[in-house]
Amino acid sequence: MYCTQCGLQLEDSDLYCARCGHPTRPDLVRPVAKPRRLTRAVRGKKLGGVCAGFARYLDMDVTLMRILWLALLFVSGGIVGLVYLGAWIIMPREDEPKPAAT
Ligand SMILES: [Zn+2]
Q1: What is the pTM of this model?
Q2: Ion ligand 1: residues, CB < 5 A
């Protein structure tokens, strides 16, 4: 096996090139995780985007998240509605999708 970047001969077990550090098996190397931000979703939102934002942050299904919010809303007698409002005010909006170039 040879490094695709600099051509150095490598062991088959090497994950990185010893000389240039180029990953030899990108499929095995975990991609650098994007920093997570709790933001209100602009895309796929139904109300304020809070549910979609939370769902994305927690890697949850957005529908399940909405059901959870609704259930909590009923159980809490409306207090969760205030939490939702607070979250909507506090949470920054995610970056708007760039408008398509014309
Ligand atoms: Zn290399």
Answers
A1: 0.47
A2: 3, 5-6, 8, 17, 19-20, 22
